[in-house]
Every structure is written in structure tokens, then in C-alpha cells.
Specification:
alpha/beta; 10 strands; globular; Rossmann fold; 261 residues; four-stranded antiparallel sheet; 10 helices
Length: 261
Amino acid sequence: MLRVSDVSMTYEPPRGFMKLVSRSAASEPVKALDCVSLNVERGEVVGLVGPNGAGKTTLIKAITTLLVPTAGTITMDDDPLDADDPDMRRRFGLVLPEERSFYWRLSGRQNLRFFAALAGLDAEAAESKIDEILEQRGLAHRDKAVFGYSSGMRAQLAIARATLHEPDLVVLDEPTRSLDPVAGADVCDDLRRMAGEGRAILMASHRLDEVVSVCDRVLALAGGRIRWQGSASELAGDPAGLGATIRRLVDDESSSREGSS
């Protein structure tokens, strides 16, 4: 379904006049991704874990056409991603942390109506789907302007928007970060349900217990590279504990790279 092949992403610092008018923390090129390859099939949930700055969000933005990789290819069902193709963009849903792309003076329902229209949904069918998904996300009776939503309510609205048009691929970056444990567990159940319906799910998370409970496979990303991949059960069964296991995998790989340089 989703194929990421040898994707690299290098951020170049501003040069010349742009250096005077742009804000940049780096004076040298920063390689955020280095030859990353992965796949996500229909019917499975793949977890993406790693320390802060590992490149997870950059990878997610490249997969969802918000960034153009420096090198490599990304395809869905062998079709190259094209940010200018609206049909291609309708095939995935995206949830980002600190979601700020809603219209804050509109209600949650009004926002979903707007994004349903952008996705090409029939107005009558969209209204029925919006009713269903607001109920599912616990927002049916909280239909007020989005600027009055709590962070958890905005997180639920972001998930509602990403799944409203029933995309083939759902990509989520820390979807439960602002949610209480019960709401977070409900989201994980929903992800498993969507995978059971034949969708492909890619989820980045710092909640390692959550990754083990919901994911079929796990990818450990650090320094812009995939350091390890395997089943969630492999990591969960390690007596050292999942967090310690991933830390060891990352440290071992870093040491081996330093030794070969």
C-alpha cells in the first residue's frame, strides 16, 4: 500500500539575503532523514517511535506531501505521491500535534462540513457522517466555537477530520498526547477497528505501552535512520522493558556508526 524507498531530507540554511530576513537555528545543512525505507500494508497498524529530533514528524510530513524529500520515492499502490493531485490527497488522513489549521471561530461541526466539502463528499451523506463521527469522538454535545475547545477536544476533532472521508491511509503524529487515558484507549480501539476495515495506519507516539497494545509492527527511528523494526510482541517480550530496549538499539547503532567513521 504505502511504500517509502530510500527517502532523505536535508534542510539547507538560508543563504545570502535570505539569511538576513529568515530565522534559522542552524548554519550548516541538517540531514533530518537518511535513506529511510518502510512499508505499511492495508489492515495493519505500524508504530513509529524514537527520541525527540529523530525525524518522525519530518517523515510524516513527507509521506503526506507537506514536504518534498531531497531524495527517494514515496508511493501509494505504486502511484507516486503528488501534492498537486487532489484525488491522491483524499486517499490519506493526517493528524498532527498542536493542530492549528481549524477555523477557530467556527464550531467543530462547521469545520467538519467545510473539510467534507473539500474532500468532495456529498452534503447529505457528509451530514450523516459528521453526526456519527462527532458522537464517536465525544463531541456531539459540545458544538461550540473551536477556540473554546480544550486541547483534548481539539485532538478529538483532528482525528474526526482525518477519518471523516474514510481514507485508505491514516497517518497520526502523537494522536493521544492531549487525551486522558480513557479517551486515549478509545482512540487505540478505533485505530484497530479501522485497520480491521482494511485501512493502513501509521502512528508516531512516545507512549510505548500504547504502541505495544495497538501496533502490529514497530519502527525505531533515530538520527534520521530506521535503527530497528520488528513486531510489537518482540519488544514487549524483552525483559529489559520496551523503553530500555529501544534506547539500547539506538545507542548500539550510534556506537557502530562512530566506530566506522
